[in-house]
Amino acid sequence: MKKIALAFAATATLLSLPAAAQFQKPEDAIKYRQAAFTLMGNHFGRVAAMAQGKVAFDAKVAAENTGVLLTVSRLPATAFGEGTDKGAPTRAKPEIWKDAAKFKAAAEKMTAEVAKLDTAAKSGNLDAIKAAVGGVGGSCKGCHDDFRAERHSGG
Ligand code: ASC
Fold first, then answer.
1. Ligand 1: which residue has its CA nearest to atom 8?
2. How far is the CA of 136 from the centre of ligand 1 (A)?
3. Is the Cβ atom of 137 under 6 angstroms away from ligand 1?
4. What is the CATH classification number for the domain harbouring 70?
5. 140 CB near ligand 1 (under 6 Å)
6. Domain contains 55
7. Cα distance from N-terminal residue to C-terminal residue, the chain
8. Which of 21, 27, 40 is nearest to 89 (CA)?
9. Which end of the chain is less crowded, N or C, counting CB atoms within 10 A of the terminal residue's CB?
10. Which atom of ligand 1 sits closest to the CA of residue 144?
11. Which residues of the chain register pLDDT less than 70?
């Protein structure tokens, strides 16, 4: 019985790891979320380029990229904890913490749009991918408009 309880606890810890990501210092959280956004921009950009006809459409490559995007899209929200507004140069606006509910909604909108894009990419339907790329791009922009500053702070 104890063993089962332990196994459950270990599994629960593993499953909740991204949501409970712990950072030694604010700088680590800032770098972590910036790294995640860099990866998201890269993998989304590859699919967006196909949707825009700038790169030849390859359904398999599109789905591989949205798979990475889907996984990584769930990570940044774990790295905006209290006290991570400074510690390294960042474009994160104070509104993220002042209007936490709105920020959370924007983050959830983004992950929902990314999930739709991944579903569209797995279907291999370019028109569906184009529509979903628009949704993801809109969610990026919406959050940037409200919560991302023009310039980096000094840190
Ligand atoms: C990207 C990227 C963003 C978004 C945004 C969409 O590829 O790096 O920040 O798309 O430009 O409006």
1. 41
2. 9
3. yes
4. 1.20.120.10
5. yes
6. yes
7. 50
8. 27
9. N
10. 9
11. 1-21
